[in-house]
Amino acid sequence: MESPTAAATIVARHTCLKLEIPTASDPQQAEPIFVKGTWFHLHFTLSITDGRDAWLCEAAEDDVRERASQWDQPAAEYIELAERYLGFQQPGSIYAFSDAGNGYRRLSWTLEKEGTKLEWWWRCKPSPNSKKTTADILDFFMDANIRLSEEVVRKTQAFDRLKEEAEKCLALSERLSAEKDDFESEVYAKFVSVLNSKKAKLRELRDRLSKQQSTGKLPEEEEEEEESSDRTEPFISGSDDGNSSEKKPEVLAGTSKRNPVRKPRGRKRGARI
């Protein structure tokens, strides 16, 4: 089983915020401070530096519950809202880091909740080792910068890969589009050829129909007449019966031989009574 310290380390969240705080002598001028926050479920710690001095704020669980009860909200919700305003500078919020006496400072910020403008604040004590606290904040900035740089490199490489894939897809799309245009051109050419042949056939049928209307005969009848005329034998002049070289045989009277009629031979049998 993990120890409470290890469990707390696992769930801890870290933020770091640069704030421009107006100076007390001249509100038009601002001095930067850096606020590092370590956030847990029901408590948090703050490390603050202006580059020369440093301060610490340790908000225990009991303190957080007491502050949350003043605003009628759960402690976890209080932590979440505080992290939002101390993790990222919110527009419209007024931040202050004023002197609270004896080296203490008062970090405050304003927020609006349910139409009411509120001011939250925490008292920060001087750090026992300002150099170490400032170094810890700078180390966090350096680590965060390295992580961001690595993330930028990964994002850039991913973008380059996506760009390369997009260029490949674009080239493929252009090739497919060209093949599609060629295919359509070929199909249209074949279609035009078929269409022209159909038009020629229709013109031929129309001409034949016009001819049939003018002659009163159907095209099929004309074809049959042509075929029957082709089958007719040619007529030869001068071949009448009077001048025919072939003569029919003549039968001369008295010269023809008649064959006698033969009677059947045999005896007649008398009828039996």
Features:
273 residues, alpha+beta, seven-stranded antiparallel β-sheet, 7 strands, 48% helix, rod-shaped, disordered N terminus, disordered C terminus
Q: How would you sum up this structure, described in words?
A:
With 273 residues, the chain is α+β, with helices and mostly antiparallel strands. It is 48% helix and 22% strand. It is built from five helices and seven strands. The chain has helices at residues 4-11, 61-70, 75-87, 130-215, 219-231; strands at residues 13-22, 30-39, 44-49, 54-59, 95-101, 104-113, 116-126. The chain has a seven-stranded antiparallel sheet, sandwiched between helices. It is rod-shaped and about 135 Å long. The N and C termini lie far apart (154 Å). Residues 1-9, 235-240, 242-258 and 266-273 have low confidence and may be disordered.
Q: How are the SSEs ordered, and which strands pair?
A:
Elements: H1 4-11, E1 13-22, E2 30-39, E3 44-49, E4 54-59, H2 61-70, H3 75-87, E5 95-101, E6 104-113, E7 116-126, H4 130-215, H5 219-231
Antiparallel strand pairs: 1-2, 2-3, 3-4, 4-7, 5-6, 6-7
Number of strands: 7
Largest sheet: spatial strand order: 1-2-3-4-7-6-5
Please identify the structural class as seen in this structure: alpha+beta
Global geometry: rod-shaped
Radius of gyration: 61 Å
**Share in helix:** 40-55%
Please count the helical segments.
5
Short description:
The protein has five helices and seven strands. It has 273 residues and is α+β, with helices and mostly antiparallel strands.
